[in-house]
Amino acid sequence: MSLYQLEREGQVEELKSVIRTSDNPEVQARAAGILGDFDEETLDGHDVVTPLVGLAQSADDDRVTAAAIDALNQLGTDAMEELIAEMAGLDLGEDQQADWAKAKAFAKALTADVPELRMAAANALGELGKTDILPKLLESLDDSDHRVRARVARACGRLEDARATDALIERLSDPKAEVRREAAEALGAIGNRQALTALLDMFDDERAPIRRIAVGAMGNFGNSRPVEGLVGALSDDDASVRRTAVYSIIELLSNVPTDQSHEIRETVVEQLNRTDDQSVLVPMIDILEESTQNRQRRNTAWLLGRVADQNSSGYGRIVEALVETLEDEDQMTAQFASTSLAEIGGQQVESRLLDVVDDTGYDENVRAQAVFTLGKVGGERTRKRLDDLIDQTESEQLRKKAFSAISKLGGRGVQ
After folding, report:
1. Domains of the chain as residue ranges with CATH
2. CA distance to 29, 39, 45, 53, per residue, from 12 (Å)
3. To pair with 200 at 20 to 30 A between CA atoms, which of 39, 168, 258, 329?
4. Buried/exposed code over 313-334 (b: 16+ C-beta within 10 A; e: otherwise)
5. In this structure, are residues 85 and 92 in contact, taking their beta carbons and an 8 Å threshold?
6. pTM of the predicted model, to two decimals?
7. Cβ(190)–Cβ(221) under 8 Å?
8. Within a 10 A sphere around the Cβ of 166, how many other Cβ atoms?
9. What is the mean pLDDT, run by run of 10 residues, along the chain of 415 residues?
């Protein structure tokens, strides 16, 4: 049976046999990679870590060693800990000292001959969160392999230790874009003034990809410091930089403390309304359609109602995205979508909300929210439809909402 068939059928034990018995390095490497890519459900009840650890230590071919390490890295920190512990001769228990032993072992692995092992060690150190090993990580920011440098920069960002700022700033001029991007994102996670200054300096770079990296990293800040710079980036000559600025603004609004978010939102709205570039609306719609994070969706739903109107490019798509958001499980997100639909208004908003009211496939709460919003945006057509709804519906909630909405539209017709 081919490796493709084994992968397709989830034949874990057969693949374990391949990595133990095959004398073909390419086959062993491919089998190891497949095991690392399997999901938890497929691997349930199968020990793949032990054979992969054995392969990583015993393989004569560097390709096989690298594949085994990559597979263990894919399986998570626990799998990598077993490899490092085996190589270091450590017996890692469950007590507090074990974490320090793991950190020291991973720090030592940063100097291993195999770059894949150094990459995995950097990942694990970032996950462990032990800031005492930061000096060792910083030494590896000069690793000869750019993949290692990138992973080390990412680990520094996870530690959020200001001591890494200077070294990360140096990596902003790394010859490899991947390293520059990870260093910028790490600086954004650290979020101090020195990091902000360094990222803002990149805004002046003549190369749009460099500016985009800096703008993208700004969303990682947990404070309001980058707002002015991000608002300025909304006027960048490059459309991709402007779109990235919108993503970062939404991310920033999701990260900052609640007591700061209102002021920041108002500043953002003011600046967005000054730009004639309609392309900044596209990433907002994308977030509303694709994001699974409540705070991102909440802020986006709110923001769209303040920066879009009936003349906006993509008006129909905006309306559709907001109508669909009325079904959001997060009540506040659904409420913001309703408010934004009322702010935008227009015939298409009225028509789509009437469709929701008439469609019994929607949850009653969603239909009631649509009725409430129609009270703010509807016209004579809505007044008549709600008048009929009052007489026809068996839902007390819909009837109450319809009475409230219709009173705002001139009251019921002559009965």
Report:
1. 192-275 (1.25.10.10)
2. 15, 11, 10, 16
3. 258
4. ebbebbbbbbbebbebeeeebb
5. yes
6. 0.70
7. no
8. 11
9. 88 93 92 93 92 89 89 85 75 59 85 87 87 93 95 95 96 95 94 93 92 92 83 86 89 79 79 71 88 89 91 91 95 95 94 94 94 93 91 91 89 56
